[in-house]
Amino acid sequence: MDENNRRMVTNFRLQMSILAEALLEQNEPEKALDICEEMIVRMPAKNVPLSRVLMTAQGILMELSVAEELPGRTVHELPAERRARARELAIEVTRAMFDIQSDAIKYYYSLDANRFQSVAQERRIVKQVADVMVQTASLYMPEDSLGVELAAELEALEAMMAEEEARLANLGSFKF
């Protein structure tokens, strides 16, 4: 896929996410799930890599997977098999999105000091997206191991980040 096609697919994903969000707000959870499912099945990551525009769809899928009411969670009317499908897709997208952010963080922290500084904003964004993946998994699926796994992976990434930032901060203090 060339750049134009990738951008077009990203735009389609964004528009479909917005549509799914509007359908959910109109209390149409079945239709919202249909839109999210079509987006993931018809525009798979193997053809066009996932991007942050799927954060809305990921949140919708997480919300649709909820079967019992807890503070901060809404339960939507869905048949059990459709709720299970929402859960399956939510886990798939959350894991894939987290892995993308994790890989990006590792890459940014492998750069030399000058390049590392030039991607400061992007580093913050990928860290925030990874945080959101952990938070949504923990909020919407507290009984699932996904949130715990992602939190542990993020903790390891944060330790690596702190170590690399300390190393880069000490680059200027040479002793002869």
Report the oligomer.
single chain
With helices defined by DSSP (H or I, 4 residues minimum), what is the helix count? 7
* Portion in helices: over 70%
Give the low-confidence spans.
none
Helix vs. strand class: mainly alpha
End-to-end CA span: 53 Å
Q: What's the pLDDT, averaged over the residues?
A: 89
Largest sheet, in brief, is: none
Instruction: Determine Rg (CA atoms, Å).
Output: 19 Å
Number of strands: 0
Shape, please? globular
Structure characterization notes:
- The protein is mainly α and 176 residues long.
- The chain has a domain at 52-172.
- It is 73% helix and 0% strand.
- Helix 2 packs across helix 3, helix 3 runs antiparallel to helix 4 and helix 4 runs antiparallel to helix 6 (120-140).
- The longest helix is centred in the middle third of the chain and has 29 residues, at 80-108.
- The radius of gyration is 19 Å and the shape is globular.
- The mean pLDDT is 89.
